[in-house]
Amino acid sequence: MPVIGPFGPSVDAGPRVPSSGQPPSRGTASPMTGPDLRVIAPEDDRYNATLVARSDETESLGYFTIKFDGPAVPFESGQYMTIGVIADGRLVQRPYSVASDPGVAESEGYELYIRLVNGGQFTPLLWQLPLGHRMRMIGPKGKFTLLPDDDRTHLFISSGTGNAPFVSMMRRLAREGHPRRAVFLNGVSYQHELGYRSLVEGWAASGSYPVTYVPTVSRRTAPENEGWNGRWGRVESIVAPVCDELGLTPANTIVYICGNPDMILSAEETLLGRGFPEDQVKTELYWPKGKEPRGGE
Ligand SMILES: Cc1cc2nc3c(=O)[nH]c(=O)nc-3n(C[C@H](O)[C@H](O)[C@H](O)COP(=O)(O)OP(=O)(O)OC[C@H]3O[C@@H](n4cnc5c(N)ncnc54)[C@H](O)[C@@H]3O)c2cc1C
Questions:
Q1: Nearest CA to ligand 1 atom 18
Q2: Strands 253-259 and 281-285: what pairing?
């Protein structure tokens, strides 16, 4: 059952699988759509991996680590894996950028940073999985990868969970002992949604990775954002000022942008307007342009 590109068919028909072993999980209740009563198969011939770790950043943002049964498949930072489960006899699967260092895929697995989309096909199922649940994982795929030996400043621009590939890139470069100077922008609605914040702030504070971390929060009047003393606004709105403040120009900077397609388009427009050639602005869209985000990215 091939996945045809990241937006290709992702729900495959398949035989209904009787439950065996552990009791089947049921989908989550969504405040927007009512209870999700799909039954998740605990075992299936198509499963080839296991959910080995999970930690929650918020109610709807989580870090999930999945490990192959057999040897790890090598990947490059910036690529994605497609993960899925069988629900009501059908394979439901989605692509996710890997956030972990490729160097730990064999020992630890593949860490993914995921937002729960209420009413979505896959994420409400994922949120129900207990540790140790069996899954299907295929990949890697994708061309959103670093150029070799590039000593320009890397401007990483992300909305929400679009920060995942950049975390993988920096983890890898740090391990290899060849960190590349980075300016890392991450935009979220609420300050508590800044995933990997302490990791990246730790790198910046200790100097263990040469990164300037620029988080930005968009909802000024939300009580959850009281006390926020960083930047305000959507991430695309801070691209121009950050370039000015830090002297980022087409002569010294390569840009990677990941996440919400509208954000990407807007940030790209700003950069092209500042003279960046198209091939110096690399992009990874999390869903096709024209679809509204659900849940704040
Ligand atoms: C190459 C690639 C890498 C991706 N990597 C990640 C990742 O690392 N982390 C991650 O959370 N998602 C990632 N996604 C998005 C992911 O594949 C799913 O689309 C998402 O989890 C929703 O799946 P779903 O079945 O629950 O929702 P669906 O039923 O498929 O609904 C899809 C709709 O949900 C909305 N949506 C999708 N993703 C988000 C999001 N992150 N925030 C808010 N609204 C969203 C959009 O409106 C989209 O049209 C990636 C997508 C691609 C193409």
A1: 94
A2: parallel
Q: How far is the CA of 152 from the centre of ligand 1 (A)?
A: 30
Q: Which CATH class is domain 11-140?
A: mainly beta
- Residue whose token pair is 């300050």: 191
Domain boundaries, the chain: 11-140, 153-285
Which two three-digit tokens encode residue 171? 């983890």
Which protein residues are within 6 Å of ligand 1, measured from CB?
A: 6-7, 80, 94-97, 112-115, 117, 120-123, 142, 160-161, 164, 284, 286-287, 291-295, 297
ipTM above 0.90, yes or no: yes
Name residues whose C-beta falls within 8 Å of residue 127's C-beta, 6 or more positions apart in sequence: 28, 62, 116
Give the tens place of pLDDT for each residue, 250-297.
999 999 999 999 999 999 999 999 999 999 999 999 999 876 666 556
Q: Is 3.40.50.80 the CATH classification of the domain at 153-285?
A: yes
